[in-house]
Amino acid sequence: MKNLNEVIIRFADEVVKSARRHLGGRRIGKNKSYGVATGTLKRSLSYRIRVRGNEVREVTFGARGKANKYASFIHWGVDGTRKSQKSPFYKYKFENPSRKHRDALKRWIRAKGIRPRDAKGRFKKQSESNMNSLAFALGRAVKRKGIVGLRFYEKAFTAVSGRFNKQIGEAVAEDLKDKFKLKLGNISVK
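The structure assignment produced for this chain is given below.
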């Protein structure tokens, strides 16, 4: 199944590239802070191929390292305490964000260049107290509303599979042709 294995590897590469595109870019036009904050999840997307003998048995898509668990949250989404995002696996239990959640949000706020404002809409000083308040308010809003799932691997698989149907069929036909010998009377087909 040499031909099929090659097509499966090309297919897996294309699915990962498409998933990275579905996650979005770091910039749109002149807006440098649009899209992903650090790009860690995007860079960590990968696949693993399990081979038995010389045949591909399984292809697993996911993320490497620290982003592995995070990728699952972003892909499937998380139900909030007050609003459902139709996540099949994840749900926030408490409205108030933990210290770890607030610290992660403070890093995100700094990476995105978000500044706190007062009641009149003027920018406040970026003191530690103001940053903590902003991180708490954002964290509580995220936990109440949840996180909408992006389903980036599902969308990528759907987008790429249509292009590879014909190639997979041709590869299987070539492999079967190479594997079987057909003898009709005195005519041999290899």
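Interim note for the steering committee: The chain has a mean pLDDT of 85. The CA atoms of residues 44 and 64 lie 5 Å apart.
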